[in-house]
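Lab notebook, design round three. We kept the backbone fixed and only want residue identities now. Task for the bench partner: fill in a sequence for the structure below.
Input structure tokens:
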């Protein structure tokens, strides 16, 4: 419940506050958001699979973000779009984790529906 409230609060806060990102930092912000979302969806997937570990979540959250920002920084210095590598990897993992979560939720819904059909009185 606290997690859902925190997410909702963060979304509302982000929509209400007038935040603008300078164009020079837009690639960094995009990479940070994508790396963070990847970690959050990975944590949700692990939670549904009952193998969530907070240490792994935090190390992945900060580690992935730092590596992605460093990769983006090096790419800018070399005038090579290395941030695209992080975008592709995190984007692919994000969709993979989402599909895993979706499958698990659909299986749980299917199990509940079967239980209700077997015993409609409960």
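Proposed sequence:
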């Amino acid at each position: 419940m606290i997690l859902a409230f925190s997410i909702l609060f963060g979304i509302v806060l982000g929509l209400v506050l007038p935040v603008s990102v300078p164009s020079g930092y837009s690639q960094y912000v995009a990479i940070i958001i994508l790396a963070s979302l990847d970690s959050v969806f990975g944590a949700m997937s692990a939670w549904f699979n009952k193998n969530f570990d907070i240490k792994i979540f935090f190390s992945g959250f900060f580690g992935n973000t730092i590596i992605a920002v460093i990769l983006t920084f090096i790419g800018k210095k070399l005038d090579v779009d290395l941030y695209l590598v992080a975008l592709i990897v995190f984007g692919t993992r994000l969709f993979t984790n989402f599909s895993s979560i979706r499958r698990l939720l659909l299986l749980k819904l299917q199990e509940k529906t079967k239980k209700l059909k077997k015993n409609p009185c409960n």
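Keep this in mind before ordering anything: The two ends are 26 Å apart (CA to CA).
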